[in-house]
Amino acid sequence: MRHLVLVGYALLLMAAAATHAADTSPLPAANYTVSRSWPLGGSGGWDTLALEASGARLFISRGDRVDIIETVSGKPVGNIAHTLGVHGIAFAPALTRGFTSNGRSDSVSVFELDTLRVLEEVPVSGKKPDAILYEPRRNLLITANSESANLSVFDAGTMQIVATIALAGPPEFMAADPAGMVYVNIEADQGKLAVIDTKSLAVKATWPLQGCSNPTGLALDAVHHRLFSVCANQVMAVTDSLSGKQVARVVIGRGPDDAVFDSDLALVFSSNGLDGTLTVIHEETPDEYRVAATVTTQVSARTMVLDPATHKIFLAAANLGATPPPTEDTPHPRPSIVPDSFAILVAQPK
């Protein structure tokens, strides 16, 4: 018995040593700060951000155009014009092509990644395309059409529509796993997650997101099969992407609109526009999550993108003015934007 106790004690010491070794890893800690702000100004609002594969250029949707800046300096290096109501931006590096979803013209613009020249504008098979996703396994481009509650699926090489997939409600952000499954947040008072099989081009399942109202941002831990949906009621819902089972819920800030996952650091981020905060959540295990930090950003900083190579997070923000009165067409108006106050914030580990 004494021998067994000594062996057990030795194992505990080994585990403690391993934990200590992990704690002294050269990877950055979860303590983030906004290190710089690049004032870009210009008119109009904004929506999503997209970082090309090299990490060199950041693409920013600005209502009727896409602005592009260098990620080292924040210097503007170009734009893509005539993208009416642009929401999402996606890249197909193997095709040297990029794509934008244009909500006001119900179309997708196709552009060259090197020259930024627009090659064509193609209609979608729905209304108000919002999020857009390139799925490399089967070379598909998918738009999430919010007003018609469906997905338009294109062959990314020919830009021919190969399917229109009806959903249980308005789609929001999407994520794809290496096996060719695409996951879609469904915006509703009781949120849902739709699972799309890109082989059959059909809905494989629709899972309830318990305790999650109006989910928007969606991120994926592909290794551990975990989906992270940020919800309007200050919750991040964690779902097993194989079974649809909810494994955790984590409290986040107000007004979340985007989520990203840093696989190297096992960190999930939620950008919260109403609070002006960034919630940093550590994945302790695939079923256990802890808020590691709440970082002050700027009120309105609701969308972001992660550079996995540097662990930097880029967020879009502007100073807000008065909120116009509601109308029949716009029952929930957003605050006005102070002219020329638009900027890109850079958050990084201390």
Please state how the strands of the largest beta sheet are arranged side by side. Answer: 2-3-4-5-6-7-8
User: Per DSSP, what share of the residues sits in E-state strands of 2 or more residues?
Assistant: over 45%
Question: How helix-rich are the residues, as a percent range?
Answer: under 10%
Q: Over all CA atoms, what is the radius of gyration?
A: 21 Å
Q: Report the major sheet.
A: 7 strands, antiparallel
Termini separation comes to 48 Å
How would you describe this structure in keywords?
350 residues; single chain; 27 strands; globular; mainly beta
What does this structure look like?
The chain has 350 residues and is mostly beta strands. It has one helix and 27 strands. The protein has one helix at 2-23, and strands at residues 32-39, 49-51, 57-61, 63-70, 76-92, 97-102, 107-112, 118-123, 129-135, 140-145, 150-155, 160-166, 171-176, 181-186, 192-197, 202-208, 218-221, 226-231, 235-240, 246-251, 256-262, 267-272, 277-285, 288-296, 303-307, 312-317, 343-349. The strands form six sheets. Strands 2-3-4-5-6-7-8 form a seven-stranded antiparallel sheet, with no helix packed on it. The chain has a four-stranded antiparallel sheet with strand order 1-27-26-25, with no helix packed on it. A hairpin with a 4-residue loop joins strand 6 and strand 7 (107-112). It is globular, with a radius of gyration of 21 Å. It starts with a helix and ends with a strand.
